[in-house]
Amino acid sequence: MQTIQVADLKANFSDILKHIQSDKEEYVIQYGRKHKKVAVLVPYETYAKNKSRIKLGILDNAVNYEIKDDFEMSDNEFAGP
Predict the structure, then answer these.
(1) SS3 label, residue 16
(2) Tens of pLDDT, residues 13-33
């Protein structure tokens, strides 16, 4: 995982995107004088694989459940009995 300042990201944006795509590298973006970490650039495949995974506390690794993109639930179903 690489760390990069916003100014460097702006100056080298296309090269960084190519690097992320080809090498599957992740970048932490830092901002300001205090180098506050504000975001992470990850390959899309990594994002897509992890976006629908629900964490269940201590059971996080014991249960792997995915919510499908076409999932729908009414307000009454969400509220429960």
Answers:
(1) helix
(2) 999 999 998 998 899 999 988
- Global pTM value: 0.57
- Domain containing residue 53: 2-76
Q: For residue 39, what are the CA distances in angstroms to 25, 31, 60?
A: 14, 9, 23
CATH of the domain at 36: 3.40.1620.10
Torsion of CA 73, 75, 77, 78, to 10 degrees: 90
Q: Which two tokens stand for residue 73?
A: 């639930």
Whole-number Å distance between alpha carbons of 5 and 27: 10
Quote the number of domains for the chain: 1
